[in-house]
Each structure stands twice: as structure tokens, then as C-alpha cells.
Amino acid sequence: MNILVTGANGQLGNSIQKISKEYPSNNFFFTDMPEVDITNLELLENLMKENIINAIINCAAYTAVDKAEDNEAIAAKINVDGPRNLAIAAKNANAKLVHVSTDYVFNGKNNLPLKETDTTDPIGAYGRTKRAGEVAVEEVGGDSIVIRTAWLYSEFGGNFVKTMLRLGKEKTEMGVVYDQIGTPTYATDLAYAIMDLLTKGFSGFTLYHFSNEGVISWYDFAKTIFDLSGIDIKLNALESSEYPSKAERPAYSVLNKKKIKLAGVKVPYWRDSLIKCLELLK
User: Which of 126, 178, 186, 192 is catalytic?
Assistant: First the structure.
């Protein structure tokens, strides 16, 4: 396959680049802004024709959750118009599309792992634009998959793991919220899941959930990062109200992975994947 990867300079895009050598029968076209603007449909369609693209993996997104509250129109251009354009370009080229979405499409008030069939109810601008992007992909039709993920981290870019490692060296005491519950996702595991689905092949529209296995709070996650890294720091458990932010975060966003596991995709345990990432960050 000739595979176009958009948003290739982000965490997931870099993770796909890292594992791409394990798929020598595929040609990867790694692109990002300003080279490829996914809000420009004409540019995308020309790119598809020139390179005979068979599949698109869309890693591009507006992910600044707090900034989205003041810039929803800008977020919508990338999170709604972009995926719609990619779906149209893919459909017109008889190519497959894998689009990555988020747990923020839910309101976080459930107390059971969230299924693909559960009602969406985003509580902020970021979640609203990502949900609208999912709908746009489905409405265009064609062969497409939307994968919702959560708490993404990697050895690339900025993320919670790297922030904790930095703060652990700078501070002797800090607080992390304990009342937001979910599961981290190691971007390399998500990259493998996407490639697995593409390799197996699919038709029509399908929605999947993917994060690592297990259930923790941000406090538990931070504590494990410090323990595994040998960082001695006093860690205080905070309520979300003690750590105010512009955008409200879902209180509970554990994703049910049964559907993607039935499709034959491996879902590693969060702590095992964290150990792998920390080893690479050393």
C-alpha cells in the first residue's frame, strides 16, 4: 500500500514513523503543516492522484483543549473540515481512511467502561469539534475507521509522562488530580493497532476504542512514573476543583476495548507500555 500519514510530526505520527520500517511492503508518505493542509480539499485530491494513495492515517488535530474554548472556529477547521476533506479524498480515490478521535466526545459522567455505542455528549469545544469530525467522516461514507483514544503519551513531543519527568527533577513536592479516571495510551501501541487494522483490511465505516488496558487516575499514573524512574518527590492527591482549567475534563473516560480486541488487535497493559517508553526516554 501507499499510505499517506497526516500530522506526521505529532506523537502518533512520529510513532508510526518509528515502526514503519517493520512494514517494508508499504510506502509511507509522512506529511504535516505547512506542506500539507488537510483543510484544502483540492490539494489533498491532487496529492492522492500524484502518489496513487491507497490509505490515509489522519494524525492531524487541534488538541489544545483549553485554547479550543476561545478558538472553537479554528479547532473546527482542523478537527471537522480536515477529516471531512480526507474522507472525501479517500472515497474519490477508492482509498481507506483511519481517523483518530478522543474520549472527550463523552461527558465523563459514566462509571462503566465506555462502548462505541454509548451516547456522546462532549462538555467542551475540543470534544465538540472532535465529535463533529467523527460524524463528518461517517457521513461522507467510503471505507473508513474512526479510533477513539485517550491520555496519549510517547517519547515524542510534549505529554504527561515527559512533563512529570521534568517536574520531578525540578520540584520536591507537587500535586496531581486523583478524581479523573481513565487509561493511558502509549502512542506506539496505537500505531501498531492502526497498522494491524489496515493490514487486515476493512470496508464501510467502523468505530473503535483503543487505549491501553487497565484503569487508573492521573495521580496513580504520576506516582508510577516517579516510582519507575527512581524520582523521590512528595506527591499530593488533588481534586479537580483544586486544579482549575479553562476547559472541563471528563471525570471518567475508561474506554471499553472489547470490539477492537474481537477484531484481533492486541491491547497491552498500561504499566508494561509505560516501562517501555521510560526505557527509551533514558
Answer: 126
